[in-house]
């Protein structure tokens, strides 16, 4: 393995401006992630415009910083308010909040920060080794493989998320349809533009993401949900004792590995891995009844695993160009905005971006660890700020931010339209995540499929005879037919039941 | 020591733990969602599915008009037509099978708050190019604080003025972003 590009990547990351962007990202991510109701997805969506004006490497470094910063912010609300900021912090609540009630909130947060750091770092090392290999393998991919991979990605994410699968796939298809708005790149025909000049350029990713993930969340929280009075638990000493660390060390080690492996899977990687890591620790424990009563391992395991999974979920994005979850879809969109197509060519064509992003995570994790422990007091103070005050401020940041991207009021209206759409989707049980993800992948799937058809002279069976795309299509059929196969098998094994439950 | 990389559910004992765990997680989720309004009935489910169906029909008709072309030479409408057909089929299935789902939420009196909030957003977007961002932002902040957030008159005034001033300093003076503005 040639390590000189890796070292060059460090050179990029250690440039003072990039370090600064990384620091800003981590801090902003933590600050906004700590606000109940706004998880990593919403935070990144709201802050997308600020990355618009800076270079690609700096932008992604900052977004990655926002990403793990926001994730740690979610942990803080889990422990102190019993409000998980996102699905992957749900299990952290059990022991985290129990520890907080015993006056050991600081210990819980300290352990979570250390676990996140180690889990993240282990996962980055794995990423450094695995990603170039996968990318090298994927270099032979042609349009048929990309079309197949894109469809598989949309299908997996729709079928693994929470909620009704049918609704998720419908939402994804609507995302694919929205992606076709604008001028067709092959024929130049205008599609679904209704004569509007704005629509002829297609719909931009930023307003969609800001509306569906950011604004919709705020509108949704306006309904009686935001008047609850929270009083965060007191935070004592943040530095965990040697005994606590010793108790958590095994959980952190195992959590790192579970997180790395499960994080690569599309869909609920971080959620699944936090549940799996917690379950494993509970099973291994000599006194499992301690779990839920404030066991340090019960915080260490899921927090380590979800951070490791969050990091390894960059692998499919950077090597195949397939975002594994909604947050990765946002990063994908941000890269596209910067004129960079994530995929196997990334490592050879933009080694500075590829290694810059990966190596920035080492730095980001260190910064997160350094910032999180002393800044806990600040976060607790932010939690005391009433949501009633934060909501309009966040709204203004969102709307004015949307305007600043292209200095067009049209973009504000788009954000509002998609904000309302997202709100209504939530009210009617449709998740916005699959829609955004499918929107991002939409034009890639369409152009690959059409190029593939050209290669095979209009014969769609050509997609099936190529070994890799054929295999992927076989997997697609299995995934799509899985619910029916499930029903056809009369007796389930216990392992199946667990798998189903966990999903 | 067992293999740490082994996925969950590999052993029956662990499977039981994972099941309990999932139940606990569900309980917690349910508790957190107590603040949610009660779920709406089958009519809302059918309505949602019909809306999706309408989107599919609209897409199919629109893309058919664009021209489907041939597989050797796909027209601009082929791909959106294919997606629209999938939407139509899936929403039709949803209309039939989705009646019993419990994942829709009823609109309540507090949904009015969302409507009011929405009006302020549209107002901001409409007024911004005309009179600049200061006054519309101030109004939006004030309405959200005083009526949607039930803050006192005093704190609503102080916070909205303070926040808009901070925005002015940040966007206009520090970042020099060309926002339309009054002053």
TrEMBL record, chain A:
Presence of the UniProt keyword Membrane in the record: yes
Report which superkingdom the organism of origin falls in: Bacteria
**Which Pfam families does the entry link to?**
TctA (PF01970)
- Residues in domain DUF112? 19-437
Keywords of the record, alphabetical order, are: Membrane, Transmembrane, Transmembrane helix
Fetch the InterPro entries from UniProt. DUF112_TM (IPR002823)
TM regions (residue ranges): 18-38, 45-68, 112-139, 145-161, 168-186, 257-280, 317-340, 360-380, 409-425, 468-485
**This protein is called what?**
Putative tricarboxylic transport membrane protein
Which species expresses this protein natively?
A: Nonomuraea rubra
Its lineage opens with:
Bacteria, Bacillati, Actinomycetota, Actinomycetes, Streptosporangiales
From TrEMBL, chain B:
Keyword Transmembrane assigned to the entry: answer is yes
Which segments constitute the DUF1468 domain? Answer: 48-180
Annotated keywords: Membrane, Transmembrane, Transmembrane helix
**Matching InterPro entries:** DUF1468
Keyword Electron transport set for record: no
Q: Where are the transmembrane segments?
A: 46-66, 78-97, 118-145, 157-177
Return the protein name.
DUF1468 domain-containing protein
């Amino acid at each position: 393995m040639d390590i000189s590009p890796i070292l060059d990547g460090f050179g990029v990351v250690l440039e003072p401006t990039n370090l600064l962007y990384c620091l800003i990202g981590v801090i902003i991510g933590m600050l906004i992630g700590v606000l109940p109701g706004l998880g990593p997805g919403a935070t990144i969506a709201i802050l997308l415009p600020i990355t618009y004006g800076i270079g690609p490497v700096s932008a992604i470094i900052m977004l990655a910083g926002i990403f793990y910063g926001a994730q740690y912010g979610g942990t803080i609300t889990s422990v102190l308010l019993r409000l998980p900021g996102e699905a992957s912090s749900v299990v952290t609540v059990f022991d985290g909040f129990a520890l907080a009630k015993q006056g050991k909130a600081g210990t819980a947060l300290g352990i979570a920060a250390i676990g996140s750091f180690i889990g993240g770092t282990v996962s980055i090392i794995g990423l450094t080794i695995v990603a170039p290999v996968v990318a090298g393998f994927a270099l032979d991919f042609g349009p048929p493989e990309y079309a197949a991979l894109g469809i598989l990605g949309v299908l997996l994410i729709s079928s693994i998320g929470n909620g009704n699968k049918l609704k998720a796939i419908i939402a994804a298809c609507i995302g694919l349809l929205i992606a076709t708005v604008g001028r067709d790149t092959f024929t130049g025909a205008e599609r679904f533009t209704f004569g509007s000049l704005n629509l002829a350029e297609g719909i931009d990713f930023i307003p969609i993401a800001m509306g569906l993930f950011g604004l919709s969340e705020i509108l949704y929280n306006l309904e009686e949900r935001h008047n609850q009075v929270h009083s965060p638990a007191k935070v004592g000493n943040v530095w965990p004792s040697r005994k606590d660390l010793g108790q958590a060390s095994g959980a952190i080690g195992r959590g790192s590995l579970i997180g790395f492996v499960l994080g690569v899977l599309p869909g609920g990687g971080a959620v699944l891995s936090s549940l799996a890591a917690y379950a494993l620790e509970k099973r291994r424990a000599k006194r499992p009844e301690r779990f839920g009563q404030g066991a340090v391992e019960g915080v260490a395991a899921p927090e380590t695993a979800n951070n490791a999974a969050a990091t390894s979920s960059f692998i499919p994005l950077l090597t195949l160009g397939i975002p594994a979850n909604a947050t990765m879809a946002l990063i994908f969109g941000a890269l596209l905005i910067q004129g960079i197509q994530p995929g196997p060519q990334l490592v050879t064509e933009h080694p500075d971006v590829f290694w810059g992003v990966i190596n920035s995570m080492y730095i980001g994790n260190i910064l997160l660890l350094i910032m999180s422990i002393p800044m806990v007091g600040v976060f607790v103070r932010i939690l005391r700020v009433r949501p009633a005050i934060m909501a309009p401020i966040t709204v203004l940041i969102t709307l004015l931010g949307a305007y600043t991207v292209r200095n067009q009021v049209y973009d504000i209206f788009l954000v509002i339209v998609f904000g309302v759409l997202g709100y209504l989707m939530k009210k009617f049980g449709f998740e916005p995540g699959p829609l955004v993800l499918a929107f991002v992948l939409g034009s890639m799937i369409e152009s690959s499929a059409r190029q593939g058809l050209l290669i095979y002279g209009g014969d769609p069976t050509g997609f099936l005879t190529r070994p890799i795309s054929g295999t992927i299509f076989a997997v697609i059929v299995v995934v799509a037919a899985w619910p029916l196969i499930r029903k056809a098998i009369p007796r389930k094994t216990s392992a199946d039941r667990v798998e189903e439950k966990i999903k | 020591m067992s293999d740490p990389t082994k996925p969950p559910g590999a052993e029956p004992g662990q499977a039981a733990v994972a099941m309990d765990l999932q139940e606990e997680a569900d309980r917690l989720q349910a508790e957190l969602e107590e603040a949610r309004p009660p779920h709406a009935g089958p009519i809302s489910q059918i309505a949602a599915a019909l809306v999706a169906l309408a989107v599919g029909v609209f897409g199919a008709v629109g893309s058919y008009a664009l021209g489907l072309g041939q597989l050797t030479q796909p027209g601009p409408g082929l791909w959106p037509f294919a997606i629209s057909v999938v939407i139509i089929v899936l929403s039709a299935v949803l209309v039939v099978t989705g009646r019993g789902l419990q994942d829709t939420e009823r609109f309540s009196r507090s949904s009015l708050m969302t409507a009011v909030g929405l009006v302020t957003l549209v107002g901001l977007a409409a007024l911004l190019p005309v009179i600049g961002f200061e006054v519309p932002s101030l109004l939006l902040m004030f309405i959200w604080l005083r009526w949607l957030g039930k803050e006192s008159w005093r704190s609503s005034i102080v916070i909205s003025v303070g926040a808009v001033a901070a925005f002015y300093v940040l966007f206009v003076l520090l970042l020099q972003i060309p926002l339309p503005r009054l002053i």
